[in-house]
Structure formats: C-alpha cells, structure tokens
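Weekly structure sync, notes
Attendees: PL, DS, HV (note-taker this week)

Item 1: 2,4-dihydroxyhept-2-ene-1,7-dioic acid aldolase
DS walked through the input record. Source organism listed as Neoroseomonas marina. Sequence as pasted into the shared doc:
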Amino acid sequence: MANKVKEAWKAGKAVVNGWLAIPNAFSAEMYSKAGWDSVTVDMQHGVQDYLSCVACFQGIQLSPATPMVRVPWNEPGIVGKVLDAGAMGVICPMVNTAAEARALVQYSKYPPAGTRSNGPIRAGAYGSSGNYQKTANDEILVIPMIETKTAIENIREILDVPGIDGIYVGPSDLSFSYGKEPKLDVEDPEILAIYDMLLAETGKRGIAAGLHNGSPAYANKMIQKGFKLVTIANEVGLMVQAATAAVKVARG
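Item 1 (cont.): predicted structure, written out as tokens:
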C-alpha cells in the first residue's frame, strides 16, 4: 500500500496530522474522518497500550488518513509490533545521536536494510508471498523526534543516517532542554532560530520536518515557515476546548 504522507512530501506538500490519546476505536473512527492527512496513535504520553493501538487502527482504517504511531521509546520490540499492527510511520521520542537514529532505522526495516522480524500480523498476511514485505522498507516512514539540546548539537549526523524520512520536533521538551518554559506554540527567538536551522538542514537533504502545535493558527504559520507535517494538540485537547466553549455560550 502506498504511503500517502510520503507521496505528499515528494510533491512538496505539507500534511496535517491528528493525534490520538484516547484508547478507543469509536473515537478514533470518528476523529479520523475529520479530514486529517494522517492520524498518530500516541503510545508515549497518552493512555494507549498495544491492544488499544490496534483498535484505533481498526477505526482509522475506515478513513483515508495514514495510520502512524509515536512509540514509547527507541526499542525494537515495540517498533516491530506497531509496524506489524499496520503503522505506516513510526515517530520515536528522544533520539539524540546518530547511533540512536541508526538503531531506529534498523528496528523499522526488514533485511538487508534492517533487522525487523517477519510477522506483519495485520499489515500483511503472515508468512505469505504477498507484496507487504516487498514494499514495507520503501513505504514505512521512519521519523526520529528532535527534542533536546544534545539532539540539536548532533543534528547533522542524525540527518545523514540513511533511512531517515523526516524529523519531528517536540517543542515542550526542546524548550525544557534549553532551560525555558515547556510549551507548544513557541515564540522564543532562540527556539525559533533552531526551527530555522532545522528547516535549512532538512531541506538540504530532502528530509521533511514535522512539529507538534497547540493551535491550528500556529500550525498554519509553521506550514508557511516550511514544516511538512504539523500536528494540532490531540483529540482530548480539541474536545475539551470545544466543550468548554459550548458551555460558555450556553451560559451566556
């Protein structure tokens, strides 16, 4: 199956990404139909586990959105399992060195490009001679998160690792790492200068840069800046915002 996010990036387009913290297939089904280009199940900071991730994928499957996962850590077991479940992209937190980026690529790809074990229980027919194993290495997106001062210091070496399709900036942790307030929609000049550097370095290599945002307005601003993947909060945050606004209107 062709990865629509990868196709959009090849065409120079940005994608708008949804984010799932709720471990429920029904909410994932409804949310994924809102027009997102991709929807990511958050297994790091949400309350998702592996079975709820699979359930969310079953909900997302009814929409045209590309299913992705943020895994809890850079570890081969969970990376392989979410790919077997049907993830078309893996976003991995706290990748700080080229060695860690190489490990993520290894975990995400079948031999000879990597060490992923064969057994795509949902993504492809197990043990068959189907096309999944033939195309997975080309279609799966491998996206390390850049969210520390150490990662910024090593960014050129990280970006030069073969098999990296994009990076995903975590603004809160990045700000925290520089001794600043952890927040999403950053206006701090030092952090914005880092964004500019990341966009320049990824642009040189044909690699997409992604960013987590707190608001749709800021996400649009970051698309104009050059980011190719923007996430807007998560479904919990958007639901609470809409509910809070509805209550205020009702009460006058």
